[in-house]
Amino acid sequence: MAEVEGGCELFSAGHRACGGCGPALAARLLLKATGKNVIIAAATGCMEVFSTPYPETAWGVPWIHSLFENPAAVASGIEASLKRQGRTEKVVCIGGDGSTLDIGVLCISGAFERGHDITYICYDNEAYMNTGIQRSGATPYGASTTTSPAGSCSLGNPRPKKDMPAILAAHGAPYVATASIAYPNDFVQKVERAINTPGPCYIQVHTPCCTGWGFESGETLNMAKLAIETGLWVNYEMVDGRVEKAKKVSRKPVEEYLQKQKRFRHLFKPARRDDVIAQIQGIADANAERFGIDIKRKESSE
Amino acid sequence: MALRVGCVAAPGRALENKTGGWRVFKPVFDPENCTKCGMCAMVCPEGCVRETEEGTFEPDLDYCKGCGICVEICPKKGIRMEKEEK
Amino acid sequence: MLEFMEGSHAVAEIVKRCRPQVIAAYPITPQTHIVEDLAQMVANCEIDAEYITVESEFSALSACLGASAAGSRVYSATTSQGLALMFEVCFNAAGMRQPIVMTIANRSLGAPLSIWNDQQDSISLRDSGWLQFYAEDNQETADLHMIAYKVCEDHDILLPAFVCFDGFILTHTFEPVALPTQEEVDAYLPAFNPYQRLDAENPLSFGMYATPEYYMEFRYEVDQAMQRAKQAFVKAGREFGEQFGRDYSALVEGYRLEDADTALVAMGSICGTVKDAIDEMRENGRKVGLLKIRAYRPFPAREIADALKGVSTVAVLDKNISLGNGGAVGTEVKSALYGSGISVYDYIIALGGRDVRKKDIAAVVDLAEKGKGDMFYGLRTEVL
Amino acid sequence: MRELRIHGRGGQGSVTAAELIAYAAFEGGVFSQAFPAFGVERRGAPVQAFVRFSDEKVRLRSQIYEPDYIIVQDPTLIGDVDVFNGMKAGGIAIVNTEKSDFDSGVPEGVKVYTIDATTIALEELGVPITNTTLMGAFAAATGEIELEPLEHALRSRFSGSMADKNVRAAERAYNLIGGAA
Asked: Is D38's Cβ below 8 Å from some Cβ in C?
């Protein structure tokens, strides 16, 4: 564990994240993986807002925030500058799902197409949380947000999650991975692998948000685990565009995951929406099929 | 304290913002029931679970927001939440 | 030593000698020859720089911001729609006090789309916190780049700057230019010495957000830096004159203004045509002069008022229009001359590449002296 | 100050002609300025390019409305464009045409030099690009530029055999027009 003198961590306590915040944990784990020799380019978002109210920054490493859309472009400039100065700091971008999958796509696509030696970490809490839980391209199918609310004639978010890892792998990224704060060491190891893989690498880490999803603050890691155990989140690595090492699970029905979150309550009350639940189960089944994550009953019993 | 040029700051001053006052419940660690696995320290979003001399762990109540993540992660269920007397 | 070259090439040559470490370039007419020349120089190892072919102007300036914060001198160039796409980053870069120098090959802003020249683009960013310098010809364009880097990187200033020169009229015009040698540029402009930088040895957080407790003070600090930039420019301009024989120690520059009754006020290449027109008018006994504004931000209000003291009528040539309120420069010159008793008229002229001839300048002077102004000049009424 | 207006079509090298003529004039010790009629030079579309020659720094930035000289690179332009517009008595026009008795639309007092630059270009360069040939004609007809600085300008843009061919084409035109000047 990379510790800063005086016992305080590279991502220090005193930040303003809600209690039980998934992204805050992701930030701590990220800096454990990078250590001090890193420069962080951050997007506007929950993490930026809860960690850097002037003059009280929680970041113990060089950190720069410019705009919502441009961490990848800023990082491109930093990487070019460091190369020219012969410096060794790793360059790591960090942005939420809104910044990464929606408004920042232009800059990320450019940076990845140019092949800069940067690592982009997306903390995916599946909606624009800082502004009050509005829908993003990463909001799951059927989830209610303030801009894709459930209603008498709406089942909530009508679109499935955008597959950003595949998009960036298609840019020729040498290493792309998904991770989850439910498996902190796995996330740390993937970050270490990414920052030591030359070229543009991407990790999308699942960081459940108690406030936005509607569950108890202590349940954050359980929720992340359940997402994986139901197949609605798959932890895998893609090396040069090919999937390797997807985490296998003996899958639980999606209902166990959905019923624990207010954003899905409309699928159960006032009346069950078995049709929508089935569609969500279909998404999980498709994930399982695509990534081959199901432990066969026989296999798991040995 | 003069403003730094360009909205820039050195690290360290976040600690001035003690977030302990946020919690309603506080975690109580039972050292007898601790395997020293350190998971609670690893997953605390505040990074305020500290190792004691004995190798067991305890929360820094200046910063702990009482979220309860440590309670859920502890393999021995050695942490319980207690209403905070204010 | 005079050489004969295209304006854009003169810019590329002088930028090369200013030794940028990171260049971020996205093409847009009529700026392309600059970034193409620079690309060729990088490809021939004439510049020790990283050349980032960004996917948009938005990223061009964002990359410059990152590289500058990491400790490199940077460069980019854009115009018109590209500069508009940079709007958010421009305000951000100035607020973060990054000494970025960017060439603007001035071009009108759509709609309607136009690739031709006026100054609507850079002027529309007058509130962004960027210093703005306007060149009359390609010699001044080249010189202003060196001066801009010197002023921007001054630790008392730390602001970004536009060096503006007119699209096509200067970018694509071949004319004689004297370019200092690399040694001479190095003597004038020392290596980049960042005030602070992203550095693992000394971690800092850049671009934090400001609560109501701090925001206003930060904006005040930027404005103070802008005000200090007036003297910094004069000093850098004087030093340039001492070393190269071309003096730039003034934010504004008069031409035959000493005994003028009527003065034209203008920025950029139109000043050349105005000077020729003034010489002809003077031959016909008309006492006309020109006040050229070289630095538009910080706005030299006091310098303008001082320069125009003896004049009774002022005609401001605005190659832009603040829609619903007339020309931007005209409005600001009027405020600078408030209470002076001078009659000031504003003329919207040469928008979207419309050519301006000497006789048009004489016509504007006639209008001003008859008290007719605050109008579009040269409208083709037959198409209205 | 003297002003030259070059009429051609996009892709015929009118802009290059302006640049190299101005460069040759500069090499000959004159202040000069060259610029295209800014816009979209699409292949085949009528374009203009301008040159100014002066004994002092050229400040004027407007286009050229009353040229002292014009070059017409493409005879088919005569129908579409009023190439002689604004020319005054004493002006000189160099027109690329086989018709030596060309006189259609020539204003009063303007001297016209015709030259079959297309044929010269085909013979010397193998392609009907007439700009460098017409530069030679311009030098001989007006005296604004000398052959030696013109060659220097051509060698600054072309190299090797390409340079030699273009120089030869310019010289042929220079001598052809020189004979008539």
From this structure: yes
